[in-house]
User: Fold these one by one.
Assistant:
Number 1:
Amino acid sequence: MSITTVATQPIAGQKPGTSGLRKKTPVFMGPHYLENFVQSIFDVVGADGKTFVLGGDGRYFNDRAAQVILRMAAANGAARVIVGQGALLSTPAASHLIRLNKTDGGIVMSASHNPGGPHEDFGVKFNMANGGPAPEGVTEAMFQRTTTIADYRILEAHDVDLSSLGRSTLGGMVVDVVDPVSDYAALMETLFDFDAIRALFAGGFRMRMDSMCAITGPYAVEILERRLGAAPGTCVNAQPLPDFGGMHPDPNPTWAKVLMDEMFGENAPDFGAASDGDGDRNMVVGRGIYVSPSDSLAILAANAHLAKGYKGGLKGVARSMPTSAAADRVADALGIEKFETPTGWKFFGNLLDAGRVTICGEESFGTGSDHVREKDGLWAILLWLNILAVRGETVAEILKGHWLKYGRNYYSRHDFEAIETAKADAMMAALRAKLSDLPGMEIEGMTISAADDFAYTDPVDGSVSLKQGVRILFGDGSRIVLRLSGTGTEGATLRLYLERYVAGPAGLDHDAQEALAPVIRAAHDLAGIAAFTGRDAPNVVT
Ligand code: G1P
Ligand code: ZN
């Protein structure tokens, strides 16, 4: 076995976004592309003598990419790589393995909730020694490195057998193939009352878990069916497939429509849940009732003390800016700190590391806690199950009880995908230019009280993030937020976030879209969405 230094040329446009680098699979499979990015990672974080975790969500090219990354890690002097069997690991499980084994970080192969397959998306992200996504300074340095890279190092060697557990060596590097599920499942047992949940299932409680042919299948079958006694067949689409069976593994009412139909149909189970490609997102649904992620975060925060891992209470709660303020009301009632961060899980990392917050969440179906440094789909689903088991109420009863107590933040996100980038940029620029004129303006019977472009100063390290999204606030507590996605791979995606607060029983009366109608009209008027983008309706509504 010999180490080869391969001459390469920088490839334009390798800018990692908020969650690593995502590109169309053929781009990643193109000459030197994956290699350039992986070498840039090692050049920035250093590989010599280090230990890393490696795994991915099983999408097309996952297996080949893992072999390349292993050979490059060996050539760059890494001491040891811990790999999930079959090169599989969910994002939260990878985060846990990094922390459990005190490694120097990890590489996760995933494009999260984006479809997978030969013509779909692939991605690579680096997580730091704390288990969390690399911060902006690090991803920026990786990007800069890809623009100047002249060669990469790779070991000439046969494939490592990743199909069986155990230790082998690759050049001078140790490769440990580990079960992707067992350590993660053990962690869940420390946080939740498995006996209570087992009793719930034993009492006839029925659940549907849709893993959307992505990574959480093996985790869900082991934890829900084997350890917790959910009926066999509770978990569907539980086999990770390279093309996710053609599904779009994004757990929301649009893409998890089959689950939604079942939950709203006759003989619906008591509880439904879905997770995304790499297992960090979740959607929960009750029988005949959808739980918005913002409400889910608030309810989990309000009830977390019912699970043994959180019985001492929460240190604080953090939500991303576009997430509804429902969680803030819970934090206020609990008398704990609350934080509003820019979009992207990495902004929670410092708060978690500093012990300022225990639970965090985003409106984009992401919830998690200080047990790892990523959002965690199955964790949220298990916390819901724990709460349902202890309270003995239905999802609908818990949701309505919450709204009656705290008031309801009607909430929805409208996505306009694959808009021409120039048009989306022009729209945002025009909106930003008129923000200072908006306060005091009346529209749809509401008065604008403030408008700004969200800026965030990290309370832990003082770093500043500017231009994180336009916020338009109204006197009655309603709110409009607009920002462009940082994770799309085709054109631009405009995300329009809509919120309206109603206290008391009135908050039980309406469908969210109906309650938000005036806010939606105001948003279209103020931003001129149709005029700029040619689109008058979103293609995904959550
Ligand atoms: C989206 C979500 C965001 C999440 C990110 C990674 O980013 O909106 O909340 O952290 O995916 O899962 P966006 O495409 O909006 O930049
Ligand atoms: Zn994901």
Note: The domain at 184-406 is CATH 3.40.120.10 (Alpha-D-Glucose-1,6-Bisphosphate; Chain A, domain 3).
Number 2:
Amino acid sequence: MLLLQPIRRLSLLCSKISKMENTVLLEASDENIRYAAELIKQGKTVGIPTETVYGLGADALNPHAVKKIFEAKGRPGDNPLIVHIYDIDTVSLIAHDVPEIFFRLAEKFWPGPLTMIVSKKSIIPYETSGGLDTVGIRMPSHKIMRKLIQLAGPIAAPSANRSGYPSPTSAHHVMCDMNGIIPAVIDGGESRFGVESTVISFDDEKTVRILRPGSVTKQMLEKAAEKVIVDEAILNELDSDRTAPSPGMKYKHYSPEANVVLVEGNFESFCRLAEKYDKESTYCLIFDNDDISKIPCKFMKYGSGSDEQAHLVFSRLREADKLHAETVLVRAPSADGVGLAVYNRLLRASGFEVIRI
Ligand code: AMP
Ligand code: MG
């Protein structure tokens, strides 16, 4: 019998927990990873660390298992799951008519935070693909996730948050959202990147379309593909007459309970704007190098460069709820490179509420 090594049973100060105590938080020992793989093979769900954010994993080929992911998250059934694979040979098992450019990009960016959408084979159930004939595939680099896939087979894993809430970047975040709802979470420390994978599709053999920005940036993709398009829905609200190229674009995303307002402008005008907000219930999310003596509200910092901001952004949005913030005024990050991913998450967290000053 496998010996479990739960780190602790948590009763953490998380907002909005409906049930407590059933979920075990597992330290990342080989035994516990084997135990988690067994759970997945039995059709159960597990919270898993990855290099992007924590995922809620289940057997990608088992429709009953995959349904549990949707139930645990409260995720709309038409929002497809990414399938995580161990090696390149698995691609031909789950996808067909894969363009040559897919393999070029896989060579360059896998294992890593890039998801590519191609035609699915029937082995991938429609429950996994959200009813689509395509599947998003990623080969992760995180060693715990890789070990689990090696033991349990392809794993479908969306971010392990309640649908609509900021993604989890620590095991603690997953426990806050999923305690009592899923059997286990593996603690692999903080996620390295902090934002979800870059999702791309292919318009043709030469053209890559970014559907969700991530840590594999447009500039990086341009080194391997002739043409890279940033889909307009990344920075703009979807027009009601346009079908979402990625179903996730339709839904409320990354939003804490607090009202997020994205503020574009210099620090002085940001501070002048902040003056107008209630001092008790408003938090400013600012850069590390901003002059805190000028800030009229309570504040949190989220780094200075884009990589740091990606690493911290979800954590800070979650902290705002713990602090009972009603409004979070966010200093808009640069939208260059990885910054596009940070900007996109904040834009959606704000429900496209941007003040330009
Ligand atoms: P998450 O599972 O939370 O990381 O989100 C996965 C994102 O990838 C969602 O926005 C999905 O809509 C998108 N996605 C996954 N598979 C596909 C697919 N086959 N076609 C289009 N978008 C996809
Ligand atoms: Mg998600």
Note: The longest strand covers residues 114-120.
